[in-house]
UniProtKB/TrEMBL annotation:
Segment forming the signal sequence: 1-24
Alphabetized PROSITE patterns for the sequence: PROKAR_LIPOPROTEIN
Protein name stated in the entry: NitT/TauT family transport system substrate-binding protein
Keyword Signal: yes
Key words, A-Z: Signal, Transport
Residues covered by the SsuA/THI5-like domain: 117-263
Organism: Actinoplanes campanulatus
């Protein structure tokens, strides 16, 4: 029998609906309605963190009231925007494209993507996981099985494209179209064989010890991003409000750059997600990078997404040139929260993002940066020996660079080096290609470091 979820199904189901804050307008106040996804934590600079810190309200000043509408996916935000009931929203790349395509069906419903929130150049914001007792060890072994995903989402796109890369057809696997929390429950109950979802669901399930990574989205090598979208009619009518929103989004972004641990704690408090999971994605050297401009490589990624969305029947046509417009975005500071300094254990400089790790000790507000995975293991060993409790330890995958939990990674020892991998399959592949190396569990890697 598979382990039960750490929180009841009713709590999960409650996450699928819309919650509305500040619905009652103050007398004489003009409402600005913002749709966001609190638990899609790579939109926090246009949603959860932005709301929690009050940056938008400060930018707008008196005379405005912000109504925040929280959804689990981008689809209902798009539906509300088409109905003229949401002015500004944030969602992932595939929902953004669907939003733009639907909006272009009528002059009155047209929308524009005006900024990026969080992105990953290799696609690591999406992940395929299986239950811990699953016998499935590769994507090819999912042939004839059932997989839960949100059809039309980037997580769905990751799964189908990864299947095709493995030489399988879309029809080789039965896809159940489910909201993330429903899919998570279905995975634990054994009703589906795998779950392909976007941040933060895979990290949450793995952190809780309820799932194992089958496929690291970073292995696909296709950029994925989240962004901000506005109704074009609203932007034309209220350009100052849109400019204020983007300025507030920049405020939230810079706050996250400068205070990544504090930002993770704030988002955790607002969403109920563990801070360790939020920080995995949104922290220093996190899986997500936050910056507003729609850079050429991200614009190109949207171009590449269109044929796939057409192939699965969720998109007919879209004029990207008319939809994508970040002309109102102002240049900010240096993008990203990055690990730096000197490794306290190894005495080496911390700087190479492909190697740098991080240790978060219980009871400490800050974190400890490490130069490479071997130094991370030494830091864990030193902290444990000193009787300190490890809150979280993070390392980048030796192949894809995807940042992951050190204790949930599969490790390989190759001479004096210790190499972490998000998936067991990747570790075994390295082991096969490097005679003399050996695969070992995290605890053994710590002891041998």
């Amino acid at each position: 029998m598979r382990a039960r979820l750490a929180f009841p199904l009713t709590a999960l189901l409650a996450l699928t609906g819309c919650t509305v804050a500040g619905q009652a307008a103050d007398a004489g106040a003009e409402q600005v309605v913002v749709g966001y996804q609190s638990k899609t934590i790579n939109t926090v600079t246009a949603g959860t963190l932005l709301r929690a810190q009050g940056f938008l309200e400060k930018r707008l000043g008196d005379g405005y009231q912000v109504v925040w509408q929280d959804y689990d996916t981008g689809a209902p935000i798009t539906a509300q925007m088409m109905a003229g009931k949401i002015d500004i929203g944030s969602m992932g790349d595939y929902p953004l494209l669907i939003n733009g395509a639907r909006g272009q069906q009528s002059e009155q419903t047209r929308t524009k993507m005006i900024a990026v929130t969080g992105f990953n150049q290799r696609g690591a914001l999406n992940t395929v996981v299986v239950a811990n007792d699953s016998k499935v060890r590769s994507l090819s072994e999912l042939k004839g099985k059932v997989v839960s995903t949100s059809v039309g989402s980037a997580a769905h796109g990751l799964f189908v494209q990864a299947l095709r890369k493995e030489g399988l057809k879309d029809t080789d696997v039965k896809v159940e179209n489910q909201q993330p929390p429903i899919g998570a429950s279905a995975l634990q109950s054994g009703n589906v064989d795998a779950l392909s979802q976007f941040v933060a669901w895979p990290g949450l399930l793995v952190h809780r010890g309820e799932a194992t990574v089958l496929y690291d989205g970073g292995a696909l090598g296709v950029p994925t991003l989240h962004g901000t979208v506005v109704r074009e009619a609203y932007a034309d009518e209220k350009p100052d409000v849109v400019k204020a929103f983007l300025a507030a989004q920049q405020d939230a972004t810079e706050f996250l750059w400068k205070n990544p641990v504090q930002a993770a704690e704030i988002v955790a408090k607002e969403t109920g997600l563990p801070a360790e999971v939020v920080y995995l994605y949104n922290g220093a050297n996190g899986i997500a990078t936050f910056d507003l401009p729609i850079k050429p490589d991200l614009r190109a990624a949207l171009d590449q997404d269109v044929p796939f969305l057409r192939s699965i029947g969720v998109l007919q046509d879209i004029d990207l040139d008319a939809f994508v417009d970040d002309s109102l975005v102002q240049a900010g500071g240096t993008p990203g929260a990055v690990l730096s300094g000197t490794d306290a254990i190894c005495g080496k400089p911390v700087g190479d993002k492909a190697l740098a790790g991080e240790l978060w000790l219980d009871g400490e507000s800050g974190t400890q940066a490490t130069a490479d995975p071997t130094c991370l293991l030494k830091a864990v060993k030193a902290a444990t020996t000193a009787g300190k409790k490890i809150r979280a330890a993070y390392v980048p995958d030796a192949g894809t660079g995807t940042r992951w939990f050190a204790d949930k990674s599969t490790w390989v020892r190759d001479g004096d080096r210790f190499l972490p991998f998000v998936t067991e399959a990747a570790a075994l592949a390295y082991n096969t290609a490097h005679p003399g190396s050996r695969v070992l569990a995290y605890e053994k890697a710590v002891n041998e470091a």
